[in-house]
Amino acid sequence: MSRTAARWVLRWLDLVNAVQPARQRAKTLANLRTALDLRGDLRVTVPGGSLRFLAHRGRHVAGALARFHDDEPETLAWIDAMPPGAVLWDVGASFGQFALYAARGGRRVVAFEPKATSYALLVEHVALNGLGEAVTPLPLALSDTAGLSRLVVPSLEAGAAMNALAGTTDQWGHAPEGFAQPVQTLRMDDALALGLPAPDHLKLDVDGAEAVILRGGPAVLRRLRSVLIEVEGEQAGPDSPLGPLLAGADLIEDPAIRGSGSGRNRLFRRAD
Description:
Layout: H1 2-17, H2 22-39, E1 41-46, E2 49-54, H3 59-66, H4 73-80, E3 87-91, H5 97-104, E4 108-112, H6 116-128, E5 135-138, E6 141-142, E7 147-153, E8 164-165, E9 179-186, H7 188-192, E10 201-204, H8 210-215, H9 218-223, E11 226-230, H10 242-247, E12 251-254, E13 265-270
Parallel strand pairs: 3-4, 3-10, 4-5, 6-9, 10-11
Antiparallel strand pairs: 1-2, 7-8, 7-9, 11-13, 12-13
């Protein structure tokens, strides 16, 4: 129904716009885009105030925001437990919902998002919320090697997932097809040399690249207090390499979270 309604609105717009010169038609469409952005300025109530998002920028963005408090309550609870001033590295930050949530509560966030459209919206959201001092958005793909690679993007829509570095597979073992966007890859340990604040906590939502990223950050892993990883497909099975990789850094899984909330996340904490 929503798509049908949208088509009717577009037809009506074409009729109204047809009487204008070409230059004015183009400006009308640009002004309409701006007006829709403002109409889609969604405010989400969070601890410490509220967050603003451009909800009309894509169906994946709108869908995630509609379930902001209900989709991954375990992730929000994990962030809530971080003290103000703690540093979170959000890897696969998408358009920034969790990065901004953490920052609004007084944490410092480094948000890694290599997909161009999602990164652009992430930056807009950081600016829209006045959180430029708290969130550092970076268009980098973390990996176990550094260099120029390509990110295969099945959908250019902001917030759309299932992207993968060329030559790798997603969490279901599939090699995605789509536009191959050039990206700079970097190891987590090398990222520290950029002068970034060292993380106390790490969040990974990277559609199958979790083990590759962890292998590139032994020094980072040894200083973390906790790691939250979204796992599906092969990464959720008993043969997943995630547990052994993290156990080697004395990060032990908290089994309580596996059956809570979305059921998609695994939480590892520093062994005391």
